[in-house]
Amino acid sequence: MSDTSLHNLTRSAEPEFADYVALLKPRVMSLVVFTALVGLLVAPVPVHPFIVFTSVLFIAIGGGASGALNMWWDADIDRIMRRTAKRPIPSGKVSEGEALGLGLALSGLSVMMLALSANLVAAGLLAFTIFFYVVIYTMWLKRWTPQNIVIGGAAGAFPPMIGWAVATGGVSVESVLMFMLIFIWTPPHFWSLALFMKSDYDDAGVPMLTVTHGHDATRRHILGYTVLLAACSLGLAFTTIGGPVYLTAALVLNFRFLVGAWKLWKRDTPQAEADAYGEEKRFFKLSLWYLFLHFSALLADAALRGLGLTGGAA
């Protein structure tokens, strides 16, 4: 009998509802929900509140389905990494078969219901997002190339495009730039995490950049992507969904992010490894606020336009 079969037969206890919720990666789902909702609400087409609610619900379910399928496939390495060892499958609370079944069922349900509640474009984007995250990133890129998070980051960047498509039925410059904001933000965000979680990826055999090229190369890549990110962020300010709030937020946040990336680049590796609570963790925490505040600023400018207090762009 295989190790996987033994693990499934000897799980610690009957799973609770919270264990199935954990399979859906609720923290990741919260980012999916928020960026999708912003993409929907800043679009220039009014949407009925019921359609807003149902569409965001099904986008969230699709994001959760991706998380369950990711945990199913990655159960072997999740058992090795400290950061993931307490997830439902490696902790023995949910079997791999249950995770696979739940992920497939929710994937089909979310895509079908989004097509019915919104439109086929939005549903098609959601289906592609699930496929990209599970097959392209999880099954292929993650264990094959140190550029895994660069290309795979596209999966997490699609939600605002899906939200925009719910409202407009299509894709535009604005939705592409929202996609690019998340897409280019993802590598420095995850690489800063990998800088102080390097041993986890090393132990699991995941070719994260910190493992294959070391800390110094990772810091150089973070700085380079942060420069690209600043350009993309400021470009979004001068579209129809930009405004004074967003422009101000982008200027302040990008200045802080660039300073943080510069400090990371200037540090030497021994110092970084000795200081587990140093610049790496501060930069990682800043990256969380960076994305949240950018999308919050877009929402604020949309509200001001709705009140007739600002024009269409910065």
Features:
17 helices; disordered N terminus; 314 residues; Tetracycline Repressor, domain 2; 2 domains; mainly alpha
What's this, in brief?
By secondary structure, the chain is mainly alpha-helical. The chain is built from 17 helices and no strands. The chain has 2 domains: 1-170, Tetracycline Repressor, domain 2 (Orthogonal Bundle), CATH 1.10.357; 172-314.
What count of helical segments does DSSP give?
Answer: 17
Radius of gyration: 20 Å
Please bin the fraction of helical residues: over 70%
Please indicate the percent range of residues in DSSP E strands (runs of 2 or more): under 5%
Assigned CATH class of the largest domain? Mainly Alpha
N- and C-termini, Cα separation:
64 Å
Apparent shape: flat
SSE sequence, one letter per element: HHHHHHHHHHHHHHHHH
| Unreliable residue runs | 1-10
Walk me through the structure:
- By secondary structure, the chain is an all-alpha fold.
- The chain has two domains: 1-170, UbiA prenyltransferase (Tetracycline Repressor, domain 2); 172-314.
- It has helices spanning 3-9, 17-23, 26-41, 49-73, 75-78, 96-117, 120-141, 148-152, 154-157, 159-168, 173-196, 198-204, 209-212, 214-236, 244-266, 269-274, 279-306.
- Helix 4 (49-73) packs parallel to helix 7, helix 10 runs antiparallel to helix 11 and helix 11 (173-196) packs antiparallel against helix 17.
- The longest helix has 28 residues, at 279-306.
- It is flat, with a radius of gyration of 20 Å.
- The protein starts with a helix and ends in an 8-residue tail after the last helix.
